[in-house]
Amino acid sequence: MSEQNSNNQNDNDQKMLGIIPLNWRFDLASIPIIRWMLKQRWFPMIIILANMFLFMVILMSGVIGGFSSGNYSFGVMFVWILWWVVLMMLLVPVLSRTWCMICPLPSFGEWLQRMKIFGVNNKLGGLNIKWPKKLSNMWIMNILFLITTFFSGFFTVKPLATFFLLGGIIVLGILLSMVFEKRSFCLYVCPVSGFQGLYSNMAMTEIRVKDPAICAKHKKKTCVTGNKKGYGCPWLLQPHSFKRNTYCGMCLECFKTCPFDNMAFNIRPPGTDLLVNEQRGLDEAWKNFIMLAIAVMFYVAMMGPWGTLKNWVRGETLAGWLKFITLHTTFGLVAIPGTFLITSWVSKLVSGAKDIALRTVFINLSYCLIPMGMAAWIAFSFGFLLPNGSYILHILSDPFALGWDLFGTANIPWTPVGTGWLVPIQFAVLFGGYIISVDFGYKLCLQTYGDTAVAKRGFIPLLVLLTLVTVAFGWLYGG
Amino acid sequence: MSIIKTVISAILLLVCTVGPIVATLVYESSRTRDLTAEILARTPEKGNFSPRYLKVALGEKIKLRVRNVDTVVHGFAIPALGVDAGEIKAGHYAILEFTPEKPGKYDYYCTTWCSEFHLQMRGVLEVTAR
Question: What ipTM, to 2 d.p.?
Fold first, then answer.
């Protein structure tokens, strides 16, 4: 999975957009009350429990509430409007994998392993088998997430479909936790985990060690083995040395187990991890392509003017639905990667670099699609938040469509907000993503090709592709 | 101390999992104590009115809640009793209160064109002498 390459420039000296030094950090945990909180056993468990309450309401709304009416279903509105928007616009780009920190879905399995909720019991139950090495990557998550999107036409209109999806994730999480060690389910299976991991490379926060020299001297490595104060990293990382957000679930156990208070919760410039050449691989590259494909397909299916395609996605006929699956899968797994492969090949060709493998170019450069992909998702999210956000006020007061009015907002009518600004906002977001993608695209060329002149030549095809993709998204969203 | 922690953990877990279910059932049953019946409205091909037959006693005050759990607009009316809820949008409901004064079988209908099977969307309210 690892693709190592020489790097002629110290990443620490680089600046985002030539302005913000990528090595700038501020440790939020240097604020005493925050450090104290991060080290408590009740944190983040208390938020997980509150979140579990919320998810119980979501699950109940799938079977009690308006059975077929998506816009008046707590589950549909909360999961696919509020949660998705908060995840894509705030949690992942700003707070990295904070959602994983407070996610209630794998908790039942984890509690069964530990037989404790708040306390520490490092003798974990279950079979505790190691996850197969060949499957220790994002491929299963890629496939599962893609398969999940096959049912997108049902999730947003049928509350029961959302119930089955979330219920299925919980059951699968429990079963796998009883067989495999620690958070293997979150690391290698959960469909929501993969894209969060990849896009959290863009995040403005990270958990890292403060002083690696302290860790080097610490022989016990309690962040890995655990101690009386906490568990060894449930995400199977080496907290003393990992360099990317991708596989850190931010569970905060390392804050609790470190006897030297050597963990930091840093604020940092966005995109820092895009330049970390560690554990890069085809699985992550394909996650990129799949996310771009889904952003396009969701827009076309949900907001586009093509009625036939909408009918396919909604499964009006089995033949139509199968056509959608074929088209969607081919687009995400073949067409977009194929286009990127051609771009990488041309990049290598015009760069003149003969000693660098095409595979390395392909994988490394794919990381510049992350800012653009994230921007496309944020722009897409505005497309349903602004027109449909007001439904959330209704469902908060009447979560099961039973005529409740808990907070006095049940009778607020559907009120689109700021839709006149929708397209300009989407264009601005897409343009922002484009600029950051171009910036990191050049840096990745420099990292891959090693020589400035070679990198400049190799960057031209990438710049053309990024520009064309942004124009295509602009046409799609605003055309 | 360990026992106290375990008990607190168990209580919190119950509050966050079983709690919403119990709270919903208790709150809803207290709200609907005086409800005679609830009728769910769906297009005929998705299940029709549910139930499609109701039996009530003559002279008894009837309180019906008609919930539209469909994706299209429905209506509800019992013309022979002068009862009409008008349009009920998807995800909304209507409360109808009336007192039948004659025994008999009264048809109730969907009053909004909802599907090609709209005309089949109907049920019967039977009013029986005490």
Answer: 0.81
